[in-house]
Amino acid sequence: MSGGAGALGGLLKGIIGSLRPYRGHVLLLGVLLLLEMAFQASIPISFKFLLDRGVVARDLRFLVGLLSGLGVATVVVMAAGLFRDHLYARLGSRVLADIRSRMFRHLQFLSMSFYSRAQTGDVLSRFSADLSAVEGAMAGAISWGVLPGLDVLASTVLLFWLDWRLALAAMLIWPLCLGGPRVFAPRASLASYRLKQEEAQTLSAIQENVAAQAVVKAFGLERPSVADFDRRNAALASSRVRFAFLSAMVERSAAVGIYVLQVVILGLGSYLAYEGQITIGSLAAFQALFLSLSYSLSYVTQYVPSVLLASGGMRRIEELLAEEPQVVEAPDATPLAGPAREVAFEDVVFSYGGEVRNLDDVTFRVPAGSSIAFVGSSGSGKSTVLNLVMRFYDPRAGAVVIGGREVRGISLESLRASFGVVFQENFLFNTTLRENIRVGKPGATAAEVEAAARAAEIHEFIVGLPHGYDTMVGERGGRLSGGERQRIAIARAILRDPRILILDEATSALDPGTEAALNATLARVARGRTVLSVTHRLQSVADADRIFVLDHGRLVEEGRHAELLERRGAYRRLWDKQSGFEVSQHGDSAQAAASRLHAFPILERLEPPLLEELSASFVTERHPEGRLVIQQGDPGDKFYILVRGTVEVLKAGPDGAEQRIRVLEDGDFFGEIALLKDTPRTASVRTLSQCVFLTLQREQFTSLLSHAPHLRATFEGMAAS
Q: Using an 8 Å Cβ cutoff, are 422 and 529 in contact?
């Protein structure tokens, strides 16, 4: 039963830290348990004296006295048992609350690297299924584990006191009862852990499916989703069957030994009594004690499956608690004091995975009070710069300096208190508008909250709602539009009165009209602050004091907008790629200039008149975030120009799993081969934000070529190549 003992040891080790603050409760509980154990042991022993001195010797006074004493003891033990149950219920509840609190507190201080790889459903399952298994084991610990265990010890001692010969025979119960569990318990413990893993993966799949219902319904994925869930559910059921069977074998293998030995002990004891070597009272007491020992062992073996299940849950809880934060505060860290000062990178090197450098020897200086923009294509490292400034991660080499101090020497609380952050997707809590703004400054007064809302130009909207600032925003702010959510995020950033305002693609997911209005608001609230802005849409940062251009983790250019355009380098190429498009205020229609179409390799051979005609043939398409635009293997008949937004290009591997091979942004294109020939799509494309496309059907393109027969051979050659 070493596996069961190991599982119990692991379970106790996991909760022992939470028991330490309640030493007094544990000591009192131990006294009450010893009292109950002594009473349970006294009942079988009383058989010897009741029969030998009371019944056989016909001593009525002794008989009445002994029975009266047992009656009084019964009342006392019942009262003590009720108090013990209440005490243990309180102790168990507090221990579980402490474990839950430790887990949640630990999550708050884990670094962003943990959250980038962790599945939400897996984390939640540790609070639900895993902790529930531990709770189940603790609930039965006294009745099915501790008290029967004490009873086994007491009964063993008393058996030797009654008759050492029968006691030696009774000790065969240990190898007979523990042999089977020793074989099956380790397997059951491993099966428990795997069962918990399967439960976590299933919960993650359910959570993902619920969040993706718009995509599921839009693409008719109900049947594939059900099929995938049935596969996961079957795997979970198989794991549960294996664990249930192995757990039952732990209990069953022990019970067989108990049943066999009960018959042996009864026969041997009867023979000794028949020969006059022991009294009838001793035989009755011994048999009662042995039955008590047998039942207690049976209770313990029946409890082992709960311990095994809980050990798997506790192992996963301990795995979470063992996660070490990658960003920690130095023991000698001090608060950041004084007015806003410059931000600088000094030969910074950083990598998320350790293989590819996301930042490579980056050095720059941002003067206090200036407006700085970081631009570049997807994966260039611009958002990584902000992650290091906010100390979500630490650089592998070099230093991040704020106000002349390396950020590792600044206390995390004061460092992050100096920032006001507006992300592309700002999380709103499912509470009131007032409390969501107050996130920026938890102790803010109602007047301060209102002032921040006015500065973010959202106050009039809020007071126009039936419940005003007490309006609930819904889960993730689902009752508000994208622009309204962003203004709430701006308000809570302003409420902090930050020295440094950080804008991470703050408006890029919005339609042009909303984006322009929010950019005007941000420009106004940013006055007098240091502004660090990351965006892939260059039009919104043309007025920045300085623009840093990143490419594959390296800083390749810096300067003002006009200067960078004149250099005709990386920035100019990005600018030209995004230029030449007209988008309506609400993003419902777009148009590409003929000169812009000429820049696409597939269209560069067409003369200007044909390009003008072709421009009118493009159709505007809008797709929400998370939409599958094209599916690998589908027929290809359309060319796409991404006017606004971000998409990911995915390719299925040999195992069927999709891998991201590229991210496309404003001005990029895909599907050009579809204009030349009928061929299946070689990759899938999914939107990462709300997107506006210009699309061209192959039929329209080939029809246009009928007006330029001299180009047909050229395009046919391109198709062949």
A: no
Contact 4, 185 (CB under 8 A): yes
Q: Which residues contact 152 (CB under 8 A, 6 or more apart)?
A: 293, 296, 297, 300
Split at pLDDT 50, 70, 90, the class of 3 is very low
Q: What is the pLDDT of residues 387-432, one digit of tens each?
A: 999 998 999 999 999 988 899 999 988 888 888 888 877 778 888 8
Q: 687 has which bridge partners? A: 647
**How far is the C-alpha of 76 from the C-alpha of 79, rounded, in Å?**
5
Token pair listed for 24: 């007094």
* Confidence grade of residue 41 (pLDDT, cut at 50, 70, 90): confident
8 Å CB contact between 509 and 689: yes
The H-or-E segment that residue 150 falls in is helix 147-162
User: Are the C-beta atoms of 11 and 134 separated by less than 8 Å?
Assistant: yes
* Cβ proximity of 296 and 155 under 8 Å: yes
> How would you label 155-193 residue by residue, b for 16+ Cβ within 10 Å and e otherwise?
bbebbeebbeebbebbeebeebbbebbbbbbbbbbbbbb
**Whether 144 contacts 306, CB under 8 Å:** yes
Mean pLDDT of the chain: 81
Angle at 341 between CA 339 and CA 343, to 5 degrees: 150
Q: Tokens for 31?
A: 């006294």
Cβ-based neighbour number of residue 348 at 10 Å: 25
Element (H, E) at 3: helix 2-19
d(CA 623, CA 695): 12
Give the pairing type, strands 343-350 and 359-366: antiparallel
- b/e map of 86-124 (b: 16 or more CB within 10 Å)? eebeebbeebbebbbeebeeebeebbebbeeeeeebbbe
Angle between helices 23-49 and 147-162 (to 10 degrees): 40
Domains of the chain: 2-321 (1.20.1560.10), 343-568 (3.40.50.300), 582-720 (2.60.120.10)
Residue 395: CB partners within 8 Å, gap ≥ 6?
Answer: 348, 349, 350, 359, 388
Confidence of residue 12 (pLDDT cuts 50, 70, 90): low
What pLDDT digit, counting tens, does each position of 615-662 carry?
888 999 999 888 889 988 888 888 899 999 899 998 887 777 778 889
Rounded Cα gap, residues 238 and 232, in angstroms: 10
Of all helices (H) and strands (E), which one includes residue 92? helix 60-109
Measured CA to CA in angstroms, residue 560 lies from 320, 542, 546, 565 at distances of: 47, 8, 5, 9
How large is the average pLDDT for residues 39-49?
71
User: In Å, what is the CA distance from 548 to each residue of 198, 366, 379, 529, 533?
Assistant: 47, 10, 15, 18, 10
